[in-house]
Amino acid sequence: MGRRVEPGLYRICSPTAESQVFASANYTLNYDALRSALAGVDAYILVLDTKGINVWCAAREGTFGTDEQVKRVEKAGFDNNITPCKIIVPQLGAPGISAHDVQRRSCFRVEYGPVRARDLPEYLRRGKTTPRMRKEEFPVRDRIVLIPVEFVHIALNFTGATTFISHTGVRKEIFRYVPVIAVMAGAVVVLGIVLGVNRLLGVI
Prior knowledge:
The chain is α/β, with parallel strands linked by helices. The protein is built from seven helices and five strands. The protein folds into two domains: 8-126, Rossmann fold (3-Layer(aba) Sandwich), CATH 3.40.50; 140-203, no CATH class.
């Protein structure tokens, strides 16, 4: 509940009638990533009410969708004086937004931007996306970042599933088995590195 941005129109720096308009979910992390990527750029951010859900999931649920897009355009009070007459939508929001319906029902056309906000500066320089910008990858670096999150989830998943049902008992259970889980997780990481090196050597 605390990770929501109020839906509406926001200004970055000093936008004019020629400035670009970017759509975002009202999930705080989505909004902050977009705002950070547009640092120093005169632009508008149109925040849709996705109930605090991120763009990708909200597009599937329909809250980051055509109706909400048109509704927010109308409430923002835009008119035909906005020169670009387009809204740049995150690539992962495409399943929820019907571009031709938005254009038919409002004065704006939809243009799908890159998957990641960090590519927006290059996208703005080029005036278009590249194939790389439209591709989502999950490299080893990103996988490693998730290890602590998964570790905490694996460690807590079965607490209370034994006869230790009190607060003290659960704490005892956690501290007893977390080291075991840590050793197992470390073994998996080492095994993954060994297999990766062997594969690399085989390719070479």
